[in-house]
């Protein structure tokens, strides 16, 4: 009978197959600013935030752009180390502007993103990427087991359903999934962070958060799965009167340019660096709303200049101001999204110094390895890699983050067992308990009968001492506790 019960629950464990390793889902909502919670439009996220561990905000990396920050989340490295110095950069060896592609994410082949490191440890560990920037490409010559290319037309619920299928795959159940959603960033660039469109998207993001939680519950994954939700950067509103024409300060044909508002990467052609810098510097003084830096003078806390991809000159608009590309893009946005362009139109911008509060992302986490109803101090994006490896029980990898910044997030008693394993252990425990109870009952009956026999002997000894003299001491010893 016991054997049949164990076999039954083993079969159930196969049907609802999940990894034997800790499970982690990292969810990124692009440009979800830390204080979007103040809108009161995300009640599900607010509830889950307070149920687990959260920080008021994250301290991200410079530049506060999508690709650099997502790769810092995935590697624990600053942009000058992992080499993704912007959403685009100018390749000075190939003399071409590089955008999203294999080369962008492979500055150094020794850099190991978390999804690759997870699978490299073997023992049936599998990773998945739902559109995470850079994860579609092979690293160290190997692709991630599950991957979905970026497809903005893919329904959000279908994205979650696909992730659940990876986690419950009967042959290769994933224990790490990186999940990216491109909103509110995509529409915020056209409508600005204060628009009704963004309010609608915040509600939609709140709904998909609830849907993910419902599906985890439905598939008996909620108690086993750790979920970290975060973003890469925030947003600032910029209006057309604050667009700056910096091209007027440079001579066409003397430089190459990459990047986008609010920071332009300028790569002067040979012999023109000082001329271009001097002209831009004079323009910045005249205009008063942008700064220009030579590479040698980049602020140290940017961790940006020690990479050959970093530009010799960087133009940075003041907060609330934009550069030449917005002069071109604003009319395109108006035409594409069918709205009237006026001086009061707002456009979403990010890329400023990470110390600007409106550039701050959010952070919240929940699961068996995460403390409940707990708040931590703001920490750095580069610290997240250490948090991932701790949750996944992987060896540490040298990086720019600090272990000390994330230990307070972790529960003292992390969960490590699958639902099926818990059921088997529970059933086994119940059966053992029943067996022990049966043995204890049998022993108790023997003791009771023994006591009854001795009690009878003691009583008879009082009446007939000459017959039961040898049992006096033992009988008295056994009767004392009962008398007391």
Automatic annotation (TrEMBL):
Q: Name one GO molecular function term.
A: hydrolase activity
Key word Glycoprotein present: no
Q: Which InterPro entries match?
A: Alkaline_phosphatase_core_sf, Phosphodiest/P_Trfase
Q: Which keywords belong to this entry?
A: Membrane, Signal, Transmembrane, Transmembrane helix
User: Has the keyword Coiled coil been applied to this entry?
Assistant: no
Residue ranges annotated as transmembrane are 422-448
Q: Where is the signal peptide?
A: 1-17
Protein name in UniProt: Uncharacterized protein
- Which organism is this entry from? Psylliodes chrysocephalus
């Amino acid at each position: 009978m016991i054997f049949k019960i164990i076999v039954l629950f083993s079969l159930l464990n196969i049907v609802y197959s999940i990894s034997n390793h800790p499970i982690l889902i990292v969810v990124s909502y692009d440009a979800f600013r830390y204080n979007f919670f103040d809108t009161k439009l995300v009640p599900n996220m607010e509830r889950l935030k307070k149920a687990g561990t959260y920080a008021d905000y994250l301290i991200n990396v410079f530049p506060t752009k999508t690709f650099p920050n997502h790769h810092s989340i995935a590697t624990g490295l600053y942009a000058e180390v992992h080499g993704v110095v912007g959403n685009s950069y100018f390749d000075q060896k190939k003399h071409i502007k590089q955008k999203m592609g294999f080369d962008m994410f492979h500055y150094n082949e020794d850099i190991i993103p978390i999804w690759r490191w997870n699978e490299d440890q073997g023992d049936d560990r599998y990773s998945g990427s739902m559109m995470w920037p850079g994860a579609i490409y092979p690293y160290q010559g190997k692709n991630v087991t599950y991957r979905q290319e970026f497809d903005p037309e893919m329904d959000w619920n279908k994205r979650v359903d696909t992730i659940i299928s990876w986690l419950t795959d009967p042959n290769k159940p994933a224990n790490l999934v990186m999940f990216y959603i491109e909103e509110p960033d995509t529409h915020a660039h056209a409508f600005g962070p204060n628009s009704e469109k963004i309010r609608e998207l915040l509600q939609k993001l709140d709904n998909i958060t609830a849907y993910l939680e419902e599906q985890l519950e439905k598939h008996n994954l909620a108690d086993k799965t750790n979920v970290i939700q975060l973003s890469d950067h925030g947003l600032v509103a910029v209006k057309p009167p604050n667009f700056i024409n910096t091209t007027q300060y440079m001579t066409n044909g003397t430089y190459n340019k990459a990047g986008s508002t609010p920071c332009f990467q300028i790569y002067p052609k040979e012999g023109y660096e000082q001329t271009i810098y001097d002209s831009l510097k004079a323009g910045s003084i005249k205009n008063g709303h942008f700064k220009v830096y030579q590479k040698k003078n980049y602020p140290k806390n940017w961790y940006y200049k020690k990479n050959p991809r970093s530009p010799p000159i960087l133009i940075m608009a003041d907060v609330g101001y934009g550069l030449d590309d917005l002069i071109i893009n604003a009319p395109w946005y108006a035409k594409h999204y069918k709205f009237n362009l006026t001086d009061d139109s707002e456009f979403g911008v990010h890329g400023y110094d990470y110390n600007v509060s409106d550039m701050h992302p959010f952070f919240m986490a929940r699961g068996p390895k995460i403390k409940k109803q707990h708040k931590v101090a703001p920490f750095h994006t580069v610290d997240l890699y250490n948090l991932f490896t701790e949750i996944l029980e992987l060896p540490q990898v040298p990086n720019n983050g600090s272990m000390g910044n994330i230990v307070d997030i972790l529960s003292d008693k992390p969960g490590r067992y699958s639902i099926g394993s818990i059921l088997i252990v529970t059933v086994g425990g119940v059966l053992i308990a029943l067996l022990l109870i049966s043995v204890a009952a049998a022993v108790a009956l023997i003791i009771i009968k023994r006591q009854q026999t001795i009690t009878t002997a003691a009583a008879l000894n009082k009446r007939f001492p000459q017959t039961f003299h040898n049992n006096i001491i033992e009988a008295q010893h056994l009767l004392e506790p009962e008398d007391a």
